[in-house]
C-alpha cells in the first residue's frame, strides 16, 4: 500500500511541474488466493484495502489441485463475498482507439466485453513448471505430441496453462494486454487518484485549520 500511495504522491507533485510527466501509478494488482474455503479474513481485508488505491484482480491459484466442481464453488463464493463491498473492474467505458471520442457502438461493445470478464472472476490460474534454482534444464517448455507448451507434467498427463479448458489465463491476458488496459488506467486516474488527491487536500486543510487555532 505504501508503494501505491507513493506513486500517487509522485504524480501529485510532478503534475504541478509537468502536466505531461510519465505515468508511474499502479493500475492493476493481481491477488492470488489459495483454492480453499473459507477464504482467510486477512486476504479479504487486504483485497478491500488495496481496492481503495488500485484495480484488484483476484485470482485462484493452483487451479489444477482441485476438482472442477470445487473450483465453481470457490469462484461463486469469492465473487459473492467481494461484490458486496468491492468494485471489480468497475469502469463503464474507455477511449479504446485513442481518438478522444467514444462512439455508441464502441461503448456498447466495451460494456458487453467487461461484463463477460467480470462474470468470469476470479480467474483460475496454474503456474507452469520451471526448473528450481540451481537446476539445469534444456528448455522452460514441455514437449507434448511434438508441440512445446508451458505447463505441468503429471503421471496422468499434462496441464497446459494456455489451454482454456485447463485454466483462465486467457481471460487475464486479454484483460491486461489486449482489451481493458485503457479502462483500468482511466479508472485509476479519474477515480482512485482523484479520491487520494481529495483526501490529501482535506487532510492538509484540516491541519492548516488546526495550526491556525493554536495561534
Automatic annotation (TrEMBL):
UniProt protein name: Septin-type G domain-containing protein
Domain of life of the source: Eukaryota
Taxonomic source organism: Allomyces macrogynus (strain ATCC 38327) (Allomyces javanicus var. macrogynus)
Domain Septin-type G: 1-203
Sample GO molecular function, one term: GTP binding
PANTHER family per record: SEPTIN
PROSITE patterns membership: G_SEPTIN
Pfam families found in the cross-reference section: Septin
Coiled coil location: none
